[in-house]
Amino acid sequence: MTWSEVAFVALVVVLVLVWSVWVAATRLDRLHRKVGASRSALENQLVRRASVAAEIAATGVLDPVSSVLVADAAWSALAVGGHGASDLIALVPDLAAEARRVGPDADAPAPGEASRAPAGAAERESAESELSRTLRTALDDPSEVVAISEEPLGAELLEALAAAWYRVELARRFHNEAVAQTQRMRRTALVRLLRLHGHAPMPRTVEIDDGWPDGLPRPGHAA
């Protein structure tokens, strides 16, 4: 093999390596963007679910104990997401009254308090899981759900809750799949050797209890 042939082969190898690095870096960047977008979508749906839950508690369609517990769990889920009291009251005007019923020892900020910084992942997941469990307890009896749907605004709020909850399930599934794809990509030898991820933290899945309440019909199903 002549010197020119060796040089040509070496050039081809270098070009292939550069192309492989470029493809890997582009794909990794696209996956990180996908994770960010899917997490944002999940956050929006979690906020929507908690807001609807707070509205249900504020309407009085639940029994008094369930109303207080659901309001407390909804307020906590919103608060750990970084929403201050003014934000929450803007979302659900009746939530201020419900917060006073919960009591001063609740985790939610007092009216007028500045917005909290978003909580850590574990605290956020714990709050969302607690909201799921509280709602399941409040809506575990289909006959009670039917009675709620017969109340003014009851059916509308239950449909909104079911729609938001269903979107939470879908958004979390989509996000966790995006995270799994990104994690697999970041474990490849090329990415680890060249540190193509830069300073981006390793994404993590969102693990919350989002089991569906027995008494709540899924979207598109009659009660």
Care to describe what's here?
The protein has 223 residues and is mostly helical. It has one domain (3-194). Helices cover 69% and strands 0% of the residues. It is built from 8 helices and no strands. The longest helix is centred in the N-terminal third of the chain and has 57 residues, at 3-59. It is elongated and about 90 Å long. The chain starts with a helix and ends in a 29-residue tail after the last helix.
Number of strands: 0
- By DSSP (H or I, 4+ residues per run), the number of helices equals 8
Radius of gyration: 24 Å
For the largest beta-sheet, the strand count, sense and barrel status come to: none
How many distinct domains? 1
Mean pLDDT score, rounded?
82
Fraction of residues in helix: 55-70%
Low-pLDDT stretches are 101-118
Structural class: mainly alpha
Tell me what portion of residues adopts beta-strand conformation: under 5%
> H/E series, N to C?
HHHHHHHH
Region (Disordered): 102-132
Biased composition (Low complexity): 105-121
Transmembrane segments: 6-25
Organism: Cellulomonas carbonis T26
Give the SSE layout.
Layout: H1 3-59, H2 64-80, H3 85-91, H4 95-102, H5 121-138, H6 142-149, H7 154-186, H8 189-194
